[in-house]
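During the reporting period the student researcher (J.K.) took over the structure-prediction task from the postdoctoral fellow and processed the backlog of single-chain submissions. One of the processed entries is reproduced below for the supervisory committee.
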Amino acid sequence: MQILTHADRVRIETYLSLKQKPKQIAGFLHKDKSVITRELSRNTKKGQIYNADYAQALTDARKLQSRSMKLSKNIPLRDWVTARVKEGLSPDEISGRLAEQP
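J.K. obtained the following structure tokens:
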């Protein structure tokens, strides 16, 4: 997975203002074209031009939501994870056990 930083997003915004295509931008950033096109489709307001600060804010919000939602919405999973933490398991060990048994 190729992660974009805020600096990458600013560069994307700049290149777009210079009328560069996603394939060209991908080359400049040494990223796959699909990373750029996905970024543009996920983080551009409908009918607006791409804005790096707005895109970063959406990305940050998604990160927070994905981390907190699973355990807050799934009570049995939260109880199971809490029990494993009390047993002294590390987060990596808990993650590994979850992968073994859904």
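The committee noted the following: Helices lie at 6-17, 22-29, 33-42, 52-73, 75-86, 91-100.
J.K. will present the remaining backlog at the next meeting.
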